[in-house]
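FAQ: What does a ligand-bound record look like?

Like this one, built around S-adenosylmethionine:
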Amino acid sequence: MLWTAALAAAALLLSACGPMLGLDVPFRGTPPAVVDAMLRLAEVTPTDVVYDLGSGDGRIPIAAARTYGARGVGYDIDPHMVSVSRENAKRAGVAVRVRFEVQDIFTASFADATVVALHLSPEFNLRLRPRLQRELKPGSRIVSQRHDMADWRPVRQIDLTVDGVVHPVYLWIVGR
Ligand SMILES: C[S@@+](CC[C@H](N)C(=O)[O-])C[C@H]1O[C@@H](n2cnc3c(N)ncnc32)[C@H](O)[C@@H]1O
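The answer part, i.e. the structure of the complex:
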């Protein structure tokens, strides 16, 4: 009993201090076919503002701008990844439609998003969930690759196989 309580306390402490201890979610790019599936599942159009929280090399906002004419915003805590994404946006010819910033997703504002993309971890999704539900406008879409939101059930799920690996992609609509 005491042992279980100690383990639970340790897990809580670790999840709260993880980022400070360098136990963040590291960069791992979403395969292009999965990026495409996420944007299609969210039914992105030119009127959308697509945020990627933890945007890595910027591939999701860049694809949203290039393929769907949307505006894109990417936040990443790693300044190197933000520089790489800005360069990638220039190379893709969409630098005027996308913006990348060094930001911690747990403190940065994303209230003007109409679509939010996530490729993080189960813990990060759950930490973001109350803000996603409270701050986004009703009808905003959230797509997450790989990780769900526990008992907040998605309205749709697709499973994409790329190079023999199954990538679940989940869709939630705020207010539903
Ligand atoms: C798994 S990668 C996903 C990259 C991109 N979204 C994709 O799907 O290709 C996660 C990214 O989140 C960033 N990240 C981790 N913790 C973060 C935080 N607290 N705030 C902002 N970005 C964070 C990492 O630097 C990394 O680039």
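Follow-up question: can I read anything off the structure? Yes, for example: Residues 19, 24-25, 27-30, 52, 54-56, 59-60, 75-78, 81, 104-106, 119 surround S-adenosylmethionine (CB under 6 Å).
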